[in-house]
Amino acid sequence: MKAILEFDLGPDSWDRLDFDNAINGTKWKSAIWDLDQWLRRNTKYAPDSMPEEEYKAYEKTRDELHRILNQSNLNLDD
């Protein structure tokens, strides 16, 4: 099976942003994965070494990131 995406990249085209988003999808996923792993490290390995309020902020931020990904039908494990 093949899929072909076609974009008009001419000087007056509105497709350039869509093209850039399409070719940078892997970079975006990698950046979000890195953020998720950073949040995970801060909530899994350091809860005793930080104030409870800070720990809860990391936990809440990671939960919200996962909520947004799920709402958008995105999965970091794929």
Task: Write a compact overview of the structure shown.
This protein is mainly alpha-helical and 78 residues long. It is built from three helices and no strands.
Would you give an account of this structure?
- This protein is mainly α and 78 residues long.
- It has a domain of 50 residues.
- Helix content is 63%, strand content 0%.
- The protein contains three helices and no strands.
- It starts with 14 loop residues before the first helix and ends in a 7-residue tail after the last helix.
- The mean pLDDT is 93.
List the helices and strands and how they pair.
Elements: H1 15-23, H2 25-44, H3 52-71
List keywords for this structure.
elongated, mainly alpha, 3 helices, 63% helix, 78 residues
* Termini gap: 19 Å
Average of per-residue pLDDT values: 93
Into which percentage range does the β-strand content fall? under 5%
Number of helices: 3
| Major beta-sheet overview | none
Category from helices, strands and their pairing: mainly alpha
